[in-house]
């Protein structure tokens, strides 16, 4: 899906890691939430509340997921899932555009 229709966009940006990771939250009529964001090259560790689906729209990164001691290479057009109440680290190799879906 290349676009979302009939959504509410939260105007205030989510800014992390001294501005190197930014996103905007969008809410759907059913109450589900996604963020659309951009990560500059660097290494970032995130904590999850709910499980997440991370779709990498463009760019490239290595990902260290919970319970996996190997880094996975993820490129534009690929995705990965992260369990809830977990921590994961990304090493962004090339500036990356992403969509994060919060799963229930």
Word description of this protein:
- It contains no helices and nine strands.
- The protein is globular, with a radius of gyration of 13 Å.
- Strands 1, 2, 3, 4, 5, 6, 7, 8 and 9 form a nine-stranded antiparallel β-sheet that branches.
- It has 104 residues and is mostly beta strands.
Write the topology of this structure.
Elements: E1 7-9, E2 14-16, E3 21-28, E4 33-39, E5 42-47, E6 52-64, E7 72-75, E8 78-82, E9 87-102
Antiparallel strand pairs: 1-3, 2-3, 3-4, 4-9, 5-9, 6-7, 6-8, 6-9
Protein name: Pyrimidine/purine nucleoside phosphorylase
EC number: 2.4.2.1, 2.4.2.2
Function: Catalyzes the phosphorolysis of diverse nucleosides, yielding D-ribose 1-phosphate and the respective free bases. Can use uridine, adenosine, guanosine, cytidine, thymidine, inosine and xanthosine as substrates. Also catalyzes the reverse reactions.
What string, H for helix and E for strand, traces the elements in order? EEEEEEEEE
Spans of at least 5 consecutive residues whose pLDDT stays below 50 are none
Strand residue percentage: over 45%
Specify the CATH class: Mainly Beta
- What structural category do the secondary elements indicate? mainly beta
The count of domains is 1
Distance between the termini: 20 Å
Second CATH tier, the architecture: Sandwich
Overall average pLDDT? 96
| Contiguous helical run count | 0
Main beta-sheet strand count, sense and barrel state: 9 strands, antiparallel
Q: Compute the gyration radius: what is it?
A: 13 Å
The third-level CATH topology is Jelly Rolls
Shape: globular
